[in-house]
Request: fold
Amino acid sequence: MKFSVSKGVLEKFPELNIGIVIAKKINNEGESEEVMKFIREKENEIRKNFNSETLSQNQRIEIWREVYSSFGAKPKKYKCSVENLYRMILDGMRLKHINKVVDIYNYISIKYVVPVGGDDIDKVDGDIELKLANGNEIFRELNSEELKNPKLGEVVYVDEKEVYAEDGTGENVIKQK
Reply:
């Protein structure tokens, strides 16, 4: 499997920075008490230092809202994954244990205020590309059976068959097989 970024995305976002980690043969079963402890501590810190009314004015959140606006998404309607996590925490929710990998990247996301996502490479069909959508790609929103198409020019992760993530974050839309 290869990962690539299209020329169109690089031209539109010349300062783009993407980090990729590929982990193989890891034990992703069970729960790490240590990671969940870090998450709980960070949740408490977030509740002390942020509030729902002013979260969008946070410099790092504001940057992601500007990025979303630049490709036509409405940031009030479609929030990046880290803003969604912060809002859930500020609404009194505790982040649930999913698996070790997801718990770790959720912690990294809330600690550094950066969207982080992940995919099971065993479910990827061919290579993954970050590109501007032509509008004909297909995806299913999380917890939905309805097939949809991204908007023309929207930033998407795709494999050889379909869209992985409709907003470039890896979080809001998950490929479902």
Summary: The CA atoms of residues 12 and 70 lie 9 Å apart.
